Amino acid sequence: MRKILWLLLPLLALPLAGCWDSIEPKSRAFVLAIGLDAAPDGKVRLTISVPTSSGMGSQSGSTGGNGAAQSYTLTADGRTFVEATQNVQLLLERSIYYGEVQAIVFGADLARRGLRELIAELMRYPLLDPLIYAVVSESPAGDLVGRITPGGRSVPRAIFSIYSTPASQAGVPQTRLWQVARALLTPGEDPLMAALMKGPEGTVPTIGSAIFHSGKLVALLSGEDNLGLSFLRGTVDQATMTVPFDGKDVQLQQVSAHTGIALLPPSADGLPRFRAHIRVQGQVASDPPGGPPWTPDELARLEGATSERVKSLAERSFSLLQEKKSDVLLLGFRVHQLDPLLWSRLSWSEVFQQVNLEIRVDTTLTRIGNRP
Hints:
It contains 12 helices and 14 strands. α4 crosses α7 (177-185) and α8 crosses α9 (296-324).
């Protein structure tokens, strides 16, 4: 009898197999993008982009074949991200599903108010992947989420296309949520995030940099300021830049940079000193517009002009970092590691504005084209 019971026991467990709390895909609202903005009374405004049933399989385009929109946005406020999600859920018949989200956009107003507590909450939220991209938007995040994710197009595809544009090749970091959280929650470390800058309506936003101090956004860098910061960080890769030379602008291609920052002995007044050595490589057309091919002497002078241009951009960006007290270059971390005794005597937030950074630039250019 016991043998029969042991044989029947596995059969009795068969009806209990399966996932009883599973939700059918058709009952889920797959969120493509998350936008977070500042709301009145210290609340958070959550905007989600959700595909319609007809747009579930679409990966490009903003409308279907009949012209009907394939995605829509929903917005609600809350004291926390969880409360805002619950309020958005009241507007939906389907259950919100964050498993497909790979990018989250923070509005600049919210970032200026501070992201430390919000990021900590997002990291504790079990349905969000810490590997999702985190960016700051100069315009309201809710507007941008609806604009860069049209027609069921996934946010990763949209952001990857933005990063692949020439404006993005200045080395802006593709920061993940966990990286931002680590920087925000580590004392003395200021995070650096990618920023989506305003552009003409209907165009792809350009990429800049968002710099922080004490968990709050202090500046958005674009154009030359962003390029100078990228040279300091050594993240310029396959970029293009213009260098004034002999009364005309010379276009350089495939520009890349590698930067090493060294801690020097303290100055006479006991302040830290650093040296940044930026090694720049690039290409220039063998035939300048309206002129003969480059001579070796002209090419050497162009390399010198490029070095001066890069040094000027880097010095300008570092002055801005000091003005905003944003140590995104982690100079304080270097002092803490290499000279703990000096670090113990400093109030880094105040001393950072007086730090001396010597910048040295070496440039190597190669000629491309038919002529040698």
